[in-house]
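Pilot study result, target chain (121 residues):
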Amino acid sequence: MTIGILIGIYAAPLIGRRGFDFGEGSKAASPLNGLMESAVDAAIRPSDETAKGELFRLSNWDISMHGTGSTVAVKRCISIGKDSIACELLAHLGWVDGEKLVEAVFEGKPGTWRMVAARAR
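Predicted structure:
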C-alpha cells in the first residue's frame, strides 16, 4: 500500500501536466478536443431524398426497383471536418420489415453531398 501511495504522489504532477483534469464535473482533456463537433443546420445537411439516393448508390441497390417503397429521413448531423458531416438516418426499406438506424458520413458541400460510408446500428 505504501508503494502505491508513493507512486501516486510521484505520478500525479506528471499526469496533471499531460492534460488530465481530475476536477469535479469537468471532462478530461483529450487529444481530440481540437476536432470540435458541431450540430449542422437543417438547411445545410443533405435532404432526405439525397440521403436516400446516396444510400442506394453506396449500397449498390437498384433504386428503380426498390426505391418507391423506401424512405430515408435525416434525423441529425454533426460536422466532423472541413467538408465532412456525419448523420444519423432512419431508413424504411421496402423489402425489410421495420425501420433501421443508419450512421452515414457525407463529403462535399450543401447541394453536392456524397455519401462515403454507412453502417447500420
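One observation from the pilot: The beta strands are 38-39, 71-81, 84-92, 99-107, 114-120. A full batch analysis is planned for the follow-on phase.
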